[in-house]
């Protein structure tokens, strides 16, 4: 965070103090992992003596990819979110098929699957067979990509392992909310999945390295709520900038442009807390982000994170672990896939 962003927060010190007091009361509800994640363990494969160096293998492959394509960090994050929030963290988003989750309209822009394929091939080769689940590989890869995306102090957190892979995937299951959802609707959605307000505010911070198609914000720029006017909660400078990037309509054959969700860090895919400063100054690109400022259950945490990167870093690590523990399959549930794109039953290479 630069000096200007720091002063933006300091100007409202009293409000921050109030926010912190509210935060302390809510923090107690978000310091533990979901009950279903209890069978997960640190160094699970090392303890089983099946793939002791899996984390090193995953980290190396992610670094190789990152060096060529830094956009892999938000891509992997999006995969994990799309997986865990639908049917739990069971790698169902990775399955191919005409009616799988990949085919849901909300998931058509999800990308990054080839890296997971590559990691799976390497891990199975080094560990002499399919002993590490695709679900665990995905969680490890996201953690390592996030660490690479950050300046010093970026989140690197222990990933609890032992997930098994799901046996199905259905586009009809996908209920991911719209980027225009209200804060009340977003909070209700997260709570329905077993997460809370702190997780909601914290995980939205991943938008600091995100992009969005203009189609998701065109109504904010030109015809908010069918008024023929822009969203009044967007600053004039951001409105003018985004209008230059996103025309009111597209010409025939013209691709829908994309915009970074944070100007300062987005193009470099650098993980930071700039997202929250944008919320405070009404410079958020997506309505779902800007709405955090106007909800009493979310605004105190926005204020805290905007002023304290360390609090955001720690909070993000916790919320990622909580999301990564949702409805996991363990023990003899599910399976360990040989190919992340197919269940073993449907794998064309398995006779």
TrEMBL record:
UniProt GO cellular component terms: extracellular region
CDD domains xref list: secretory_peroxidase (cd00693)
Localisation per UniProt entry: Secreted
Record note on cofactor: Binds 1 heme b (iron(II)-protoporphyrin IX) group per subunit.
KW Secreted (keyword) present: yes
Domain Plant heme peroxidase family profile positions: 39-344
Record-listed substrate binding positions: 177
The enzyme's E.C. designation: 1.11.1.7
Catalytic activity, as annotated: 2 a phenolic donor + H2O2 = 2 a phenolic radical donor + 2 H2O
Binding site for heme b: 207
Keyword annotations of the record: Calcium, Disulfide bond, Glycoprotein, Heme, Hydrogen peroxide, Iron, Metal-binding, Oxidoreductase, Peroxidase, Secreted, Signal
Cofactor(s), names only, from the UniProt record: heme b; Ca(2+)
Ligand binding (Ca(2+) 1): 83, 88, 90, 92, 101
Pfam family, one: peroxidase
Positions with a binding annotation for Ca(2+) 2: 208, 263
Protein name listed in UniProt: Peroxidase
Lineage: Eukaryota, Viridiplantae, Streptophyta, Embryophyta, Tracheophyta
């Amino acid at each position: 965070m630069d000096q200007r962003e720091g002063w933006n927060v300091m100007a409202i010190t009293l409000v921050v103090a109030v926010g912190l007091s509210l935060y302390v009361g809510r923090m107690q509800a978000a310091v533990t992992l979901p009950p279903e994640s209890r069978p997960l363990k640190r160094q699970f494969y090392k303890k089983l003596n099946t793939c002791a160096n899996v984390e090193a293998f995953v980290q190396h492959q992610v670094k190789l990819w990152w060096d060529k394509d830094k956009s892999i960090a938000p891509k992997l994050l999006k995969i994990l979110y799309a997986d865990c929030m639908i049917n739990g963290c069971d790698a169902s988003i990775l399955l191919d098929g005409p009616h799988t989750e990949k085919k849901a309209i909300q998931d058509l822009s999800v990308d990054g699957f080839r890296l997971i394929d590559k990691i799976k091939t390497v891990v199975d080769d080094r560990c002499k067979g399919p002993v590490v689940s695709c679900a665990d590989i995905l969680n490890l890869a996201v953690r390592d990509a996030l660490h690479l995306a950050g300046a010093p102090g970026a989140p690197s957190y222990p990933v609890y392992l032992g997930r098994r892979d799901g046996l199905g995937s259905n586009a009809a299951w996908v209920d991911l909310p719209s980027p225009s959802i209200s804060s009340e609707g977003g909070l209700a959605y997260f709570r329905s999945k077993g997460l809370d307000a702190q997780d909601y505010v914290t995980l939205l911070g991943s938008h600091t390295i995100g992009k969005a198609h203009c189609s998701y914000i065109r109504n904010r720029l030109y015809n908010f709520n069918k008024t023929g006017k822009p969203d009044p909660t967007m600053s004039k400078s951001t409105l003018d900038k985004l209008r230059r990037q996103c025309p009111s309509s597209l010409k025939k054959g013209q691709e829908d442009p994309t915009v970074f969700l944070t100007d300062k860090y987005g193009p470099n895919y650098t993980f930071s807390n700039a997202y929250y400063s944008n919320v405070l100054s009404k410079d958020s690109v997506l309505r779902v982000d800007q709405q955090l400022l106007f909800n009493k259950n979310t605004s105190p945490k926005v204020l805290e994170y905007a002023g304290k990167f360390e609090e955001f870093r720690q909070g993000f690590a916790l919320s990622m672990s909580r999301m990564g523990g949702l409805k996991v399959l363990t023990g003899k549930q599910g399976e360990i896939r040989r190919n992340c794109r197919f269940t073993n039953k449907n794998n064309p290479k398995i006779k």
